[in-house]
């Protein structure tokens, strides 16, 4: 283990919710006095994510033969026996258990497997963290779990059903982070557009965000993690249209761009719904940048279906495309459907990524000569309000933009890995 043997090393795989939970785990483990410990917070979205986690665990054991290795997260929740069987693993902890401080106390760490039935969990307790290790953007949990059963998805069996946090707990967390100097917060969860379904009065995500911004006026920038198109209602659209502190970047959980594939995925939207939604989003916020998750090579997907997805994504002009080759998850309905050949999946994913690269470059080229607001994340680099990566230069080399600050910058060129921009004089923090 690098550094002191007394360190707690939490290694995060997968989603932004895992990133938040890793900070909670780090705090609990430190408070419990744990030392020389590596915690793997795993992801189960794809078989590749699980493979990478197992590979990392084996490498960690070779490099740290004396360390205690604990595995948690969705992959551990869904298949604890597989990780317990690894010689490198000392303990397996479930998704609910990892969030409980008592789990990490030495007297409670004797059971090699601490994984309960996640489907029996009905509430999610609030957790307060001071900040994010090495980050200038914070992820804040607003809900947990998912009530939907998309045919490809194993995550409800790792996270349980939808459970929302009360507004007060979310406000307290955001206030704490802002007081610590963080300027941007991302509201995250498994399905955040389901926020409030289980709360009295069923407040919606848009209502939550509006109240949060009102109660924490010091918060400069607010984002949302992935949004289910069906869940974007009028309250959220109104907020996006009229609240400048909501960043003009929306990431959609599309998964496909062809109706039959969407039906077989058991998604709740069709392509006409997406077309109408994108039109409304861009009408509400003309400077909006769109992202989307897309699965390539879903079972039964024909060449014509794939071509339709390509055509629709091109028509929708989505510059931030996240593409995943379909990965069969044992126990899901899609795993029992006729499968597309692995090589075909990979080729279709490559075609989608190439289209995404082209759409991103087109979008980036339109940003040249524009003035953008950039959250500086490290020396000379940050993300703009539209989530474009920006490489920053200062007109005076003696001055630099301090990580964690927000600066105005004028885009000068399209670079290989994002935009190049010059900080506007008077907007530089020494």
Characterization of this structure:
The chain has 3 domains: about 10-115, 3-Layer(aba) Sandwich (Rossmann fold), CATH 3.40.50; about 135-365, pyruvate-formate lyase- activating enzyme (Alpha-Beta Horseshoe); about 370-425, no CATH class. The longest helix is centred in the C-terminal third of the chain and has 24 residues, at about 340-365. Helix 1 links the parallel strand 1 (about 10) and strand 2. Helix 7 (about 205-215) runs parallel beside helix 8 (about 235-240), helix 8 (about 235-240) packs parallel to helix 10 and helix 11 (about 305-315) runs parallel beside helix 12. Strands 1-2-3-4-5 form a 5-stranded parallel β-sheet, sandwiched between helices. Strands 14-15-16-18-17 form a 5-stranded mixed β-barrel. A 3-stranded parallel β-sheet has the order 6-9-10. The relative contact order is 0.08. The protein has helices at about 15-30, 45-65, 75-80, 80-85, 155-160, 165-180, 205-215, 235-240, 260-265, 270-285, 305-315, 340-365, and strands at about 10, 35-40, 70-75, 90-95, 115, 135-140, 145, 165, 185-190, 220-225, 250-255, 290-295, 320-325, 370-380, 380-385, 390-395, 405-415, 420-425. It is of the alpha/beta class and about 425 residues long. Helices cover about 30% and strands about 20% of the residues. It is built from 12 helices and 18 strands. The protein is globular.
